[in-house]
Amino acid sequence: MTNDAFLLYGTRTVEAEPVRLRAGALSADFVNGNLRTIRHGGTEVLRAIAYIVRDRDWGTYEPNLTDLIIDQAADAFSVSYSASCLGPDGTRLGFRATIKGSADGRLVFEVSALPESDFETNRCGFCILHPIADLAGSPVTVEHTDGSIVATKLPELIDPWQPFKDIRAITHQVRPGVTAECRMEGDTFEMEDQRNWSDASYKTYVRPLALPWPYVLPAGQPLRQTISLRITDEGEAPAAAVASEAVRVELGETGPRLPDIGVVIYPEDVETALANLSTLATLGPQQLLFHYDPTRGHGLDALRAFARLATACAAETTLECVVAGAGDLDAELSGVADLVRRAGLKLSAIAVSPSVDRQSTPPGSAWPECPPLEDVYAAARRAFPDIRLGGGMFSYFTELNRKRVPADQLDFVTHCTCPIVHAADDLSIMQSLEALPFITQSARAIFGARPYRIGPSTIAMRQNPYGGATKPNAGGQRIAMADSDPRHAGLFAAAWTIGYAARVALDGLEMLTLSSFTGPFGVLASSGEPLAEGSPRPLFKAIKGLCELAGLAHVAARTSDETKVLALAGRSASGDTVVWLANLTADDVPVDISAFGRDHLVMTPYAIVRID
């Protein structure tokens, strides 16, 4: 692969093109043994049908496919293959899969699995993803395993738990006159609202979470599961989209101010930041978010390092302080306050969260011992009476949605997101942007107009609430739950970052943090990249652009196809308007910007463009 791949993805590896399967109005993309983007007449019916095997830390195995046969006829298609997953200590799970689709709107995906030895897993079976666009809050019919049928709705606001359990089938309207029934056999299925994790889907999965995990599949005991999709078409086919039509950009009403932009700083990154102060000043963040975790050895030296950087950089400062909560809260937090004073660190705010709240508590699990949050916040307020106090979760919206903090004691609420909790392919990451407005709307429904911050939110995962640790990724692959991601160094991350800011702009955030300054989450290149170490990554341009927009009035900016191009606009007090566009795709996209008195432009893959 050429250096262009490095520029786009930070790696020479490019994902394989999917195989498009067609049968009349039915189509699906075959990718690595699973189906993506299942459409009927061009309308997405299901986002995915995938057979997933997860390890004890909820990491996803990448099965080795053999004997793959794809047969594409005029009005039908079929796929068959064998696969295996290699677990710890040489354990192995083999399975055989068949997929059949026909022009009458029927699709059947069947898998027969056979553990060659006892095989430990957190999940083994099908996951079915319903898209959220045009479906959130819409009517569905759910058939349960006892045969009962219930007319209900998909959640509009994000459900912290499972909206539906004991599922045998789900039926929804694809478009007027077209319905789709997805039937699941071979085990008990339930649905979770994956928007909690910023996935753009409702996920129906096998094996209830209330059952113990990890669990063992006994050697020699077969498992068979079948997913059957039946699409009934009594309507007219929609007009075919014109593939070459330019994406139009339009501006609308003026809204809330755009948020301050933060950059997270870890103790080990301070010296590099001090050595690059002019670059940090050029970036121009309004906030430095200092991560402080006494449970990982941070103490006076870390705070003194933060103090040196705070003195040298003209920005507000927030201490992201992990609370051990193992003893007297007043003693712990007053001790932190004393160290802050001794270090000479001037803070604008502090955000606190108990260390145990960084671990998720899934449905059916016991909540870990934790001091009442009311007591944590009261102790923090007593220790830091003269600065703003924030709280929430240093993990993800999932945890905040499930453990809703007493926000009346706080000056602001905060949480993070991560797009590679469940999947790490390029398409899933960009699709995660669709879920962000639902996250901010759900947070507003819970906490009202309380000042609201998001971040640090990056492509890579800085901590794993769902297992023992993040996944090491020294090879620079596309791995779910990885501690680093190659795309962070490419144009991909810049487009994702502008898209992220565009998606959350309507809800009036106080602060948004989408990077660190250095390291695996940073705006500066590390060793081993095509760029020279310490030089700006493409992400630098995106973060700098957001810093320049901070404080401007948000102007609603819409595009005619937000799966391809997102727009973010701000207007100054003098009436000058700045617009950033992000191409979310790996293709050239023509864009109509005549609304700004300009000609068309063609955005190259993952490009970001500023229009003044």
CATH superfamily of the largest domain: Glycosidases
Query: What is the name of the CATH topology of the largest domain?
Result: TIM Barrel
- What's the end-to-end separation, in Å? 35 Å
E-strand count: 33
Uncertain segments are none
Rg, Cα atoms, Å? 25 Å
CATH architecture heading of the largest domain: Alpha-Beta Barrel
Structural class: alpha+beta
Q: In CATH's first tier, which class of the largest domain applies?
A: Alpha Beta
Number of domains: 3
- Biggest sheet layout: 16 strands, antiparallel
DSSP helix fraction:
10-25%
State the helix count: 11
- Global shape: globular
The overall average pLDDT, rounded, is 95
Percentage beta strand? 35-45%
Task: Give structural notes.
The chain is of the alpha+beta class. It folds into 3 domains: 215 residues, Beta-galactosidase, Chain A, domain 5 (Distorted Sandwich), CATH 2.70.98; 76 residues, Immunoglobulin-like; 292 residues, Glycosidases (TIM Barrel). 18% of the residues lie in helices and 38% in strands. It has a 16-stranded antiparallel sheet that branches. Strand 28 and strand 29 form a beta hairpin. Helix 4 packs across helix 5, helix 5 packs parallel to helix 6 and helix 10 packs parallel to helix 11. It starts with a helix and ends with a strand. The model has no long low-confidence stretch (mean pLDDT 95).
Features:
alpha+beta, 16-stranded antiparallel β-sheet, single chain, 3 domains, Beta-galactosidase, Chain A, domain 5, globular, 612 residues
